[in-house]
Every structure is written in C-alpha cells, then in structure tokens.
Amino acid sequence: xxxxxxxxxxxxxxxxxxxxxxxxxxxxxxxxxxxxxxxxxxxxxxxxxxxxxxxxxxxxxxxxxxxxxxxxxxxxxxxxxxxxxxxxxxxxxxxxxxxxxxxxxxxxxxxxxxxxxxxxxxxxxxxxxxxxxxxxxxxxxxxxxxxxxxxxxxxxxxxxxxxxxxxxxxxxxxxxxxxxxxxxxxxxxxxxxxxxxxxxxxxxxxxxxxxxxxxxxxxxxxxxxxxxxxxxxxxxxxxxxxxxxxxxxxxxxxxxxxxxxxxxxxxxxxxxxxxxxxxxxxxxxxxxxxxxxxxxxxxxxxxxxxxxxxxxxxxxxxxxxxxxxxxxxxxxxxxxxxxxxxxxxxxxxxxxxxxxxxxxxxxxxxxxxxxxxxxxxxxxxxxxxxxxxxxxxxxxxxxxxxxxxxxxxxxxxxxxxxxxxxxxxxxxxxxxxxxxxxxxxxxxxxxxxxxxxxxxxxxxxxxxxxxxxxxxxxxxxxxxxxxxxxxxxxxxxxxxxxxxxxxxxxxxxxxxxxxxxxxxxxxxxxxxxxxxxxxxxxxxxxxxxxxxxxxxxxxxxxxxxxxxxxxxxxxxxxxxxxxxxxxxxxxxxxxxxxxxxxxxxxxxxxxxxxxxxxxxxxxxxxxxxxxxxxxx
Amino acid sequence: xxxxxxxxxxxxxxxxxxxxxxxxxxxxxxxxxxxxxxxxxxxxxxxxxxxxxxxxxxxxxxxxxxxxxxxxxxxxxxxxxxxxxxxxxxxxxxxxxxxxxxxxxxxxxxxxxxxxxxxxxxxxxxxxxxxxxxxxxxxxxxxxxxxxxxxxxxxxxxxxxxxxxxxxxxxxxxxxxxxxxxxxxxxxxxxxxxxxxxxxxxxxxxxxxxxxxxxxxxxxxxxxxxxxxxxxxxxxxxxxxxxxxxxxxxxxxxxxxxxxxxxxxxxxxxxxxxxxxxxxxxxxxxxxxxxxxxxxxxxxxxxxxxxxxxxxxxxxxxxxxxxxxxxxxxxxxxx
Lengths: 632, 335
Fold this sequence. Notes:
The complex is a heterodimer. Chain A is built from 21 helices and 14 strands.
C-alpha cells in the first residue's frame, strides 16, 4: 500500500530546502532587477483603477457584419499601440479581453487627441506617389525647419508657415492653384503640403500619427517608418475595402516556380481590380524607377509599402515582392488584410479614474485585508492553538510568495495589480487557511483513530493531500474559466485567485507538511502538550477509549468482530447504557491521559499493521448491535 | 462543549446529526428558497447598475460638500438632463449618474462638478458606459457558467468515478447561485459587473466545500457493499458529521476576509467594486457552506440509492435489522 510507504518516507528537509530555494530565487531576481534597473521592483505596478488614469473598452465591429477573428483583434491592438506610442503616452496598457474586446488603459489624463486616436478605426489607403519630399523641398529651395529627433517648437512652426505661404497672403491654402489632371500631378503640391513637408520629421515617433486622418481626397505627406524617408502622395485612389484578401508566400515567377525570397499576394474585389488596373496603367506610363512610377500603401498615415510598377496590373490580382523576410511578408499581408476589413471601434465604456479615488480604494482594501487576516489568525489560534502558529506561518508564506510572484510578473510581463486583483488576494487568505484546516482535521481524525501523533501526521497527510489537490483544482478551473471568458475587472481577480491557489499547493506540500513533520518531533507537539493543538486529551482519543471497541475492518472475520463487540457489550448491556458508558469513558480517559502523560507519549495499545484500517465507530456500533442481537 | 470534543464525538459517531436521514426536510427548505428566489427574480425588477443601463457616471472624491442638489443643478445646466441619480459614496464622495453624454459634455460636467464641489478636476472620475456593455458582461458570464459546469462535471466524474456525486455537486451549486441571486434581488442592491464576478466566484467556493465533504463520503462508503452493518445513507451521514467541524472552520476562515472587505467597503466607500464583489461573495459563500452539508451529500445519496446494488444492499441491511435500533431507521419506517 502506497500510503504506508509514503508514511515512512524520509526526512522533511529536502522539501524545505526546495521551498527555501524557491523563495531565495524570487527574492534574488527581484533584488537583482532593482539593483540593475533604475526603479525598485519590490512592489508591483498598479492598474489604472488604483493609480488613476483613463480606461477605454472598445469592441471592433465590421460594417458588413462579418466575423472578427482573433488575428483582427491582435492586429487592431498592434495598430492602437502604435498610435498611442506615437502620441507620446508612456506605459499604455492595451490588451484584448474575452476574445472580442480591446481594453486600452492610459495613465494620467490623456488629451482628447490621444483619446480620438484610440477611438478611431484604422484606415488603409492606396495612393500614388507624386514625389520624394526631399526632392520637392530642394526644387522649391526650402529647408525643413526641424532638427531630426527633436520636437518641433512653436517658433519653427511659425517659420515653416511663413516659408510655405508662397503667395504671401498670410494663410496656408490646401487648394491646388491649378486643377490637377491626375492624382499624380505636381499640381497637388499645395502650400499645405509644403508646410507638412517642412515640419514632418520622419525620425520622430509622433510622425507616424501626424497625418493619420488626412482626408481621402486630398494629398498628404507620409513617412515610411522603415526607411525614415517621406513621400508626397496624391489623393487616395483605392482603400482597404477594395482588397479582397492578402496572403504571403514564397516568391514565384510567372511560371509559378519559386525563385527565392518572399512576396505578398493581393486579390482585389471586382471594382478594386478595375480601379487598380486604371491606376497602374497610368503609373506604368512613367519611367521605371522614377518617383511617379511608385505607389504607396498607407495604413493610418504611415506607409507600410512603397512599390514600383513595371507594367499595368489588370485582372485584379497583384503581388508585391522585394527583399522581404518571411515574417515581414506575413506582417504586410496581415496589415493589408486588416486594412481590408471595414472595421470600426465601438466604445463600450470609457472611464476616467481619479488617482485620489484609486489610492483611497487601495488603502481601504488593504485595511480590509489586514482586518480579515487578523481575524483569521485569531480564529486559527483559538481553534488550533500551538499549531495555529504553523497555520498562520503557512498563510504568511502564501501571501508573501504571492506578493513576490506578482512583483516579478509585474516586472517581467507588465502585470498590473488592480483593485479586483487585491480583492482576489485578500479572499485567497481564506483559501490558504482552508488547506491547512483540511490537513489538520485529517491529522486529528487519525489521532481519533488511535494513531500516534507521528503516524497521524503522515497518514493524515496522505488523505488530506488528495482532498487539497482536487479542491484546489476546482478553484483553479474556476479561476481559469473566469480569466479567459469574463470581461471587465474579472481578469485581475481571476488571476490572483488562480495564482494564489497554485502557490497554496506549493506551500502546503513544501512547507506546511514538512514543518509539521519537524514539529511533531519536538517535545511540545510530539507529546501532545495541552496547548499544542495536538493534545490527545482534548481530541478525546486515548488508550482506553481507542482500545475498547477497536476492531479491524476488511479482512477481519465476522466472528472476530463479534468477539470484540461482545467485549464492548459487556460494558454496556443496551444501546443507551453503552452511550452512558462512553460518556463516562471520556471522563476516565481524561484521568487516564494524565497518568499517560507522565509516562511519555500516549500509545495506542493496538498498533495497526500496514494496509489495515480501523473500523469507524459507527461500524463498530453496528457490530455491537449485531452482537447484541445474536446473543439475545 | 469545546470544538475538540464535539469534533471527536462527531467523528466517532457518539454524537451524530441526522442530516442525511432528514434529507426530505432539507430538500423542502431548499426548494422553498429556490421557488421564492425564482418568483422574486421574475416579479421584482432587478436593480441594474449603470453598466447595464448605459450612461455616464461621475465620482467626485474628497469633497466636503455632500449636497446632492448641487450635482443635479450642474448636470441640468450643462446638458438639460434632469434624470440624474446622485448618491453618497462613503464619507466624502459623491456619485452622479446621468444619461449618455458626449465627450464634450463629459468634459464640461466634470469641470462644473469640480467647481461646485470645490475639488481639482482630476478628482472627478468619469465613466462612460455604452448600452450594450452590461449585456456583454451578462452573456460572457452565462458562457463562463456553462463552460465551468461542463468542465467541473468532467473533473468530478473523473475523480469520484460516479455521476451521482457530480450531479449532487452541480445541483448544490445551482441552488447556491439561484438563492444568492434571489437575496440580491430581495435586498434591492444594484447589480453591477462586480456582482456578476462575485456570483461566478461562488462557483469555485461552493464546489471546494462540496468536494471536501464528498471526498469523505467516498472514503466512508468505499467497499461498504462488503459489510452488512450500515447502509450507504448511514455511512454518508457519518461522513458529513465527520467533516462538520472542518466545514465550519473553512467557512469561517473563508468568510472572515470577505466580511472584512464588505464592512470596510460599505463603511468607507459605499457603492463600488469592493462592496458589490464582497456582498455577492459573502451571501454566496454562506449559502454554499450550508448547502455543501445539507444539500450536496443528501442529493448524492438520493441519487446513489437509486442504483441497483446500493438499493439491494440497503434493503439487505435494513431487513436484517430489528425495529428499534437507530433513529434514522425508525423515522424512515414511519414515513
């Protein structure tokens, strides 16, 4: 029987050593990160509801009601992240939630422009290139006003405004001076475009969103973030809705043979194919390699691809090839696919949390946690006396490890502790107490069965471990389901609940049980001191009592059981008398226990051989009854 | 009598609460509460929070002025909206709920509220909630519930190797959920997403307790067909009694921190995540502690006794037993 083997298993020290190593590893990694990094890692970062900030929950919806895939969501998150990063808001938190929502958390009080950037959907447009920006500025004899990488000052903007005002009327016109004959016409280079060209610094992050929402029917200056170059582009000729789908794959020649490298394949819709045919016919008319031969695919004001044309592309399918790596090609295909979705964001909820309210809530929940923990400590000490201390230490270990782990996750994975997360931590104090209670009640049960304290600690563990594991598994499943499916603040709650459940298992196996084994070797606990919580007297299990109707279960012959029961029956002729005797027995036990204590540890007169389990009293009583019947 | 000696007597069977034997009584009580809750849920409109109605909400924190009329006037002046709900949140905060406002209106109302309550604008928290948000939360909650029950049924079935226990546990779980919802409706507290989270969390708790009781039932009834002394129901009853002290202790330690959050939440914060979450949890955990004792195990016994081998065994044991032995049995025969 495995229980027996495990019951005699060796020293508890290896488990404690593993536990100590875990704690040391956690503390050391946090210490190392605090020493090497600029900020302390001893406390987790707080989520917006505790720190104050703005949280927007968006649901992407398609105009045509088509299904939104997880890829669309992650692409949308990527795009929102780029916009938010570009707007200069640090530490924004953008996550998907429940598979269909996007949660954007912005610390502090973001500007309306930033919020608009978040709320607006991504726009994919195909525009013809009119010229390289640098070329145009050189032709007009102008110099950009900015210094690369430095924010443009008001002064520089005024200077650019003056330079761009070609006709000197004091305002910058967005109207072409003459009617452009095509979207590739130089006539589109208006005062407004010159102004943009003078001020748009493609080496700065904010350039990416500067022209994100230019109108489709007007020209724009756009950056190619990969090269840092900028182009002047004509009005949009196609948009995302004209693309049916985009995929990436190995580059093939016209014969369909792979020729090395990667390409992106675009399929246009019927209308899109016709339009693209017209555009490419016009662009292919310009000499290959010149600016006007290029067309640009612009997502959100940033150029994601500029390609030159050798020939008109008719028939509605095109492929873009270049020096792509496979991931680059895949990323471009994703962007095109996402841009082809007629996707808009619906604001589900927008919340501005004041830092005052957040810190108030944090303080209140910490007070609540302290009170709750204090009450549990008192209760456990009352219930389990000396062993209550072990329970309290175990709970402290669970809370300490949870805190360290959360700090570590905050550092490594950007986890942020929310109010619901704090509540989850507080509630889990109770869960970690549960594991101890389940274990210790089992130990008491084993003592009641007549085992010695030392045996009870091991046998009780073998039984309790299973119960603890399965009930913790139930808790974990609940936490996981909540985490993956639920919306709103559930996530932080589910996360801490799940985390502490796992930590609870670790602590109970690697700490509570081995320490219990060590404690039972001490005189105070091992000999069942009155205040140890393991006292056989207060449990009522003592030699006389345990010895009385003790019978063996399975594998024991009925006659033997009957004989035992008869012995018991002699002490009590009827059921009632038996109970009276049992009560009296308890009193005797107490006396007896005192004398036993003098001798040392209470021993059960019958030791159980491996594999046999004593009968429970109910079974025993039934046996007594049967014996009584048989005799009468 | 101390908990120790009570625990001992319960364990040995010297004292035994006849819980399984009176199961019809518990079923009756549970059914009455379920019906009451169901009727309440149908008749009384649920007090849905703003997350379910949609609208805008402002929380002014740290103000000395607790006058509610000021807020009503401010919102009416800025937006013409006169269906404003104002409530005090804790000792020095005011919560103002309005219909849906535009971004500009939100800015204006925030500024005006900061002005009239004499706090910095940053201390006025604003929330906009779209009308479908609450519905989204509810549908996700129901989805979670269904998936959870499915998964847990599989786990329980795999662990206990019998469907009766899985059904008993899930039955007790649904009972807990319905009655908690009923208590919520009866109390008239606002139902917010935090309440829904609380309800879902009860799932784990309710089962935790139930699983521990069932584990003991399983242990006590292992191989019981080989003996002729006690019936399945009696063994199960002993198991429930043997785990009673543990059930009480785990329930108390579970409820203590939740109770602390509830008291602190209500005292210092009024309406809010803390109160909503902890109230649902407190009620649910209390009910699930009771139901794990009085409902889950009796349900498993009722279902188990329908199985042929157990049924035959029970008859065998009872027929071999003279009339005046056990209170459980006498009651049964009278019934």
